[in-house]
Amino acid sequence: MANKEILLVADVxxxxxxxxxxxxxxxxxxxxxxxxxxxxxxxxxxxxxxNRATGNYATYRRWEVVDANDEIDGDVEFPESxxxxxxxxxxxxxxxxxxxxxxxxxxxxxxxxxxxxxxQVIIQKVREAERRKxxxxxxxxxxxxxxxxxxxxxxxxxxxxxxxxxxxxxxxEEMIPKEAVRMGDRxxxxxxxxxxxxxxxxxxxxxxxxxxxxxxxxxxxxxxxEGVVDIKAAARDPGSRAKIAVKSNDPRLDPVGACVGxxxxxxxxxxxxxxxxxxxxxxxxxxxxxxxxxxxxxxxIESIVVDEDNHSMDVxxxxxxxxxxxxxxxQNVRLASELTGWELNVLDAAAADKDHDEVSxxxxxxxxxxxxxxxxxxEILVEVGLNNxxxxxxxxxxxxxxxxxxxxxxxxxxxxxxKDALLISAIASEERIETxxxxxxxxxxxxxxxxxxxxxxxxxxxxxxxxxxxxIDDILEFTGMNEEKAAKLIMKAREPWFADKQGEQxxx
Length: 508
Fold this sequence. Notes:
- Helix content is 47%, strand content 21%.
- With 508 residues, it is an alpha/beta fold.
């Protein structure tokens, strides 16, 4: 059957919708197939093939080649659209399961109904093609800044018109809390993801991502855009406060000043875009302790203790600066922690000094007793940062030799005595664990009950001295008590240490 109308429809749609003509031909074939199936009572399968040059088309009825279905006596389940493999092979020995047997049948005319059906199919395919085009275009822009006009608001979520009939979506949780947004407002966001949804391509945008802060500074500060200033990290409490870490690649340029701008103009522009979010600009430093000090500003840091194993730092500040260092609701220390990547514990410097003195006193006494050294050598070991026997047993010889007044003979003697002490302690600990019986001093200790004492003994904490050597975290690991009770028990167990020390001082 020849139909010039088909060629005309293909040309019109291809030109008006800017769509590949092949997609239009396929849509018309689908429409003619649907019209043909409707003419038959049974749900037959058909295929329509249009000649792309002349508009001629032919219609074929199709049967899918299948294996016999044993459940229905070796026959096919849908005889109107299926044929057995052995039957199909009578005419074509090479045919296989999944192939089709075809027979040409009378074609339906390309009438108004068929044309209307084809139009619907074409529109659907045009939409699919447009979705693919948007997805492909914006996939490459993930991680970039996008700007749009607020198109509609739905339960706290925002839909943006990016132009060209392209829509972006900002979920409620990605909006800055309490931000006043109205229809027609022009706002920016960070493109987080692009996904093809049933309703069309969905561009997911965030107003809370730290990357948005970085992108805005890149836009407002030419030195950042040109790569003269690097933004190393960013942390945000959206709508309230943020911190960014900056580094200059030109020693003559102050990166903090560049980001602040004349009279704060640049940082103010970023703040205005983020609903008044206050931004602290921090100088990045390759020395991580110094970087933490910078990040904790404006609080003044008195001392820092670094725990590499747990990737944390204890930050000591003066008592009158404690609230400033922590910030409202812990905001300052939380942002500093996110910015630096370290877990930060803010301590009162006075309390920290007291704890340090207690630890040092304990370590010094342990060195005197277990290493058989005098008060002077024990003091030196504590001063260089050694806090327990294990550290002395396994510290590199070279590091001990660097201590003023220490020679090879002394270093070897210290290491040997430390290893012997550890061995004796390990043997004693194993013997105690085997018995799992708490010592009398642990049972009678104030705040202790029999069940807890046996629970501790099972973990190798047999006597008060064993408990005194534990940390709060050690105790919390295997008991259900709270932090306060654990701390009280440990301090109670340590009382004899300090009483002995005071007695020695009084006797001296």
